[in-house]
Give the backbone structure.
Amino acid sequence: MNSLRLILSNPRYFGPAWVFASLNILFGTWAINIPTVKENLGIDKADLGIAIFFLSLGVFTVFPIAAKIINKVGVGRATSLGVLCSSLVALLPLLAPNYYTLMASLFLFGAFNGFTDIAMNTLVTELEKQDNQKFMSAAHGFFSLGGVLAGLGSFLIVAIGNPPLHMLIAVVLVISVNAVFFNRYYHIKAAPVDKEPFSLKLFKPLMILGIVSFIAMGSEGAIVDWSGLYLKEISLAPEALWGAGFLGFQITMTLGRFLGDAISTRIGSVKMVALGALIAISGYVLVLTTATYFAIAGFALSGLGFSVMVPELFRIGGNVKGIDSSQGVSFIAGLGYTGFLMAPPILGFIAKSSSLLSCFIVLLICAILILAATSVLNRKRVNS
């Protein structure tokens, strides 16, 4: 909890951490108003799926150019501009008068969210370098906390009865708190890096990190989407427990991120990813027993394992020798989000052609692959 205490006691670190929370407050508020938007525009599930695809398309479109923009304007300024723009465009999907403007507004929302995501992770990487402090994992804990705040905001839906006004309240909260802390990090620029000519030797560790990010974030997305159905159909759990796996996963994910920095300081980032993989493997073993309570405990244990992986991957990627921190973060984020979006439908195909149990066997194998990848990274001495 040292990193959490650091964030809460020092505005220099609370400012960037609140940006993490801000993104999930905005995204979560949009997500809980999706049913109302669908009903107001009179669109079906297929149309909604296509519209949400444009949100993902916006994220992916910005990844190739984000690093150049961040380096040009400065990582602190890019983060502050990113969260301001994300806040403003967050209103657009809820104000969209028709289906086509919904798609366009979701594209912009995704693009600015993706840009801010890379900027804020790069900002934390640079602060860690400058101050010799570790708080990346706790900052990601604030992202999870933002989702909790958005979820609590769902109780306002009935009282307000107006999705744009609901989002406006979230935007005012986000901008008001950020405005207090912008000056704490606005001036920060990424430290110059002695770039090396492109080579396979330079690219290989970054590629391994990207693949691990793809698997780790893909696994997160799979558990979020499939844990309830697994408990219902495979574990034959009572209806009251169908959401228990997701809840356990989210709780341990948040707690693990607040605890992760202190452990990482002692053992190093690569070993931290390896430890997370071992914990996730143990969780999957419990899930595969199919017994209801073992499966719920397994989902919670997997959440604890995956909680530390992505923050550490961003930390490692931002410190790869010969590569700008923003480029490393952008590459890992790009592959990670690809995995997050692709894994659930891929596993859905496996579930349809085989069984849902087979999906979690595949996820267990993926966790073992992450563990194997950390041994390669250790040999290459990619650590922080």
Summary: The chain has two domains: 2-185, 200-379. The mean pLDDT is 86. The longest helix spans residues 200-233.
